[in-house]
Design brief:
The chain is α+β, with helices and mostly antiparallel strands. It has 2 domains: 128 residues, Impact, N-terminal domain (Ribosomal Protein S5, domain 2, 2-Layer Sandwich); 65 residues, ACT-like. Chain A, domain 2 (Alpha-Beta Plaits), CATH 3.30.70. The protein contains 5 helices and 11 strands, in the order βββαββαβαββαββαβ. Strands 2-3-6-4-5 form a 5-stranded antiparallel beta sheet, with helices on both faces. It has a 4-stranded antiparallel beta sheet with strand order 9-10-8-11, with helices on one face. Helix 2 runs parallel beside helix 3. The radius of gyration is 22 Å and the shape is elongated.
Length: 202
């Protein structure tokens, strides 16, 4: 059965690990999409133009299927996988980690690299609190403006997350309903007259 909750981070962090002259800077970010990952990666490449590698791992979404690892020129399996391993170790999702490497002149070998990327990532993830969040099911609501108070009381009571609101004579709300309270929320909203509900993907 799919979980009702997931674990993630809500703030970025950075940590440094040094090994035989090489510097490994691990940057962690909370992310909700691949596009946001790309923005962070591009910004780091600008910030560290003299670094030799920008190794990446991210995992996004509830099903665990949206992830990527990149060794960025390091030996295969020596960077991206160890970084992802630390994200998975803490059972996190919606997280991007980029480890920026400055070469120190000494080759570390594959075991040394695995240890360095793993350690840098672990250090950065230790700096930020891990938060538990409810898995949300997305819905769109349409109702008359005079029902706003009744609807918003239910929204607040069950910690629903409003993502979009268009209010004129009629109101359209897009929101995420915590999965573990879905039945209660739908029942409550169903008791209100002239409130139409439909499930949406985004």
């Amino acid at each position: 059965m799919a979980p009702d909750f997931y674990y993630t981070i809500e703030q970025p962090a950075v940590a440094e690990f040094k090994e035989r002259g090489s510097r490994f800077l691990a940057y962690c970010y909370p992310v909700a999409s691949i596009d946001i990952c790309k923005i962070h990666i591009a910004a780091l490449k600008k910030e560290h133009p003299k670094a030799v590698h920008y190794c990446i791992a991210y995992r996004i979404g509830m099903d665990g299927n949206t992830f990527r690892v990149s060794d960025d020129g390091e030996p295969a399996g020596s960077a991206g996988r160890p970084i992802l391993g630390q994200i998975d170790n803490k059972q996190l999702t919606n997280v991007l980690v980029v480890v920026v490497r400055y070469f120190g002149g000494t080759l570390l070998g594959v075991p040394g690299l695995i240890n360095a990327y793993k350690t840098a990532t672990a250090l950065a993830l230790q700096l930020i609190p891990i938060v538990q969040k409810a898995v949300e099911i997305k819905y769109e609501l349409n109702f008359n403006y005079h029902q706003m108070n009744e609807v918003m009381m239910i929204v607040k009571q069950y910690n629903c997350n409003v993502t979009k609101q268009v209010a004129q004579l009629f109101v359209q709300l897009k929101m995420g309903i915590p999965k573990h309270r879905l039945e209660e929320v739908l029942n409550k909203l169903g008791e209100l007259r002239e409130v139409s509900l439909k499930r949406v993907e985004k």
